[in-house]
Amino acid sequence: MRWRHAVRATFTSTTAIESSPLTGKVISNSRAPQIAHEMLVEYFMALLVIMGLTAPVDKQSRRSSQYFGHLAAAEELSNLIPDNYDAIDPVFDNSTNREIIAALGTTARLHCRVRHLGDRAVSWIRQRDLHILTIGIMTYTNDQRFLARHIDNSDEWVLKIVSVQQRDAGVYECQVSTEPKISLAYKLVVVTSKAQILANRELFIQSGSDINLTCIAPQAPGPYTHMLWHKDTELVSDSARGGIRVESEQQMKTSNLVISRVQHTDSGNYTCSADNSNSDSVFVHIIKSEQHAAMQHELGSRLVLPPLPLLLLAVLLVVLLGPTSSLQPRTPLSTR
C-alpha cells in the first residue's frame, strides 16, 4: 500500500502546479504542468520496468500515446502495482564467494547480493568488534582503506579493503535493515605469499654444465601470477649472454630458469619474485673442473682417519689390554 500512497502524493504535488489558486482551472499556457507530467510519466515507466511489470518502451512511443492522462494515468499505474509488493522480503544471493583469500598488501573485495531490497539499507559490519564500516555507500570508519561500492539498479553491494593488513583477517557481515535484521557472513583470509626456489641456498655448478632452477609461488593471490628472475640486481635476459631460457606457467604459478653451458661470469645471487609475494634467493658458484675434483677429494679425506693416529691408538690398546701376567709383579725368589 505504501506504493499507492506514494503515487497519489506524487500526483497531488504535480497537479498543484497545474491548478490556478484563483479559478481552479488548469493553466494551459504554462510549460510547468507539461514538464511535471512528463517527469511523472518517465518516473513511473522506469519504475515499472525495474519491477518487471512492463517492457522498456522508447520515448517516441510514449510521447505519441495519449494513454497517460493526469489522474487516470496515476491511478492506472497505482493499480498495476501489487498490494503485497512491499511485503516481499529481501533475500541474499548465495552464489557469491563467501571466503575471500587476499595476499598481504593487496586489495580485497567482498561481494554481497541482495534481491528485493526495496527501501532497506545494506551495511557492512566487522564481527570481531561489531564496528559498522559502511551503510549504503557511506563509510562510517576513520580507516580510509574501507570503502563501499554499488552500481545503481544492481543487487550487488561491495566492501572494498585497500592495502590489506594481517589485522583485517576475520569475519564480516553483510546486513540488511529489515525487522528483524538479516545478515550473511563473509570470511577474509590474509596470507603472506612467498616464492620458493626448489634448491639449496648455495649451489656449486661445474663450468660448462647447465643450471635448471625451479621457482613456485602456490599462495600467490589470483588465478594468474607473473614471475621474474634476477641475477644480483639485473633482470635475467637472453640478450647478450645467450643460452638462457625462462619458462613460466602463470596459471600453475611456477617458473623455470635454464642456463646452458655456464661460465664463471654466471656466478652470483639468483632471485625469484612473484606478484604480491616475498622473493626467494640462492647463490650459485661456478667452479672449474680441477676445483670440483679438489673439493671432492677434500670432502672424502675428511671421512678417513689419518694412519699415524690410528697406529698409536693400536699400540696403546695392546699395552693396556695385554696378558695380565706380564702386568703383575713377580714373586721374589726364596733365600733358603
UniProtKB/TrEMBL annotation:
Q: Which UniProt keywords apply?
A: Membrane, Transmembrane, Transmembrane helix
Q: Does the keyword Amino-acid biosynthesis apply?
A: no
Ranges for the Ig-like domain? Answer: 90-177, 180-283
Question: Which PROSITE patterns does this one have?
Answer: IG_LIKE
Name the Gene3D superfamilies for this protein.
Immunoglobulins
Q: Has keyword Transmembrane helix?
A: yes
Where are the membrane-spanning stretches? 303-322
InterPro entries registered for this protein in UniProt: Ig-like_dom, Ig-like_dom_sf, Ig-like_fold, Ig_sub, Ig_sub2, Ig_V-set, Zig-8
Any GO BP: synapse organization
A GO cellular component term found in this entry reads: neuron projection membrane
Q: What is this protein called?
A: GM23950
The source organism is Drosophila sechellia
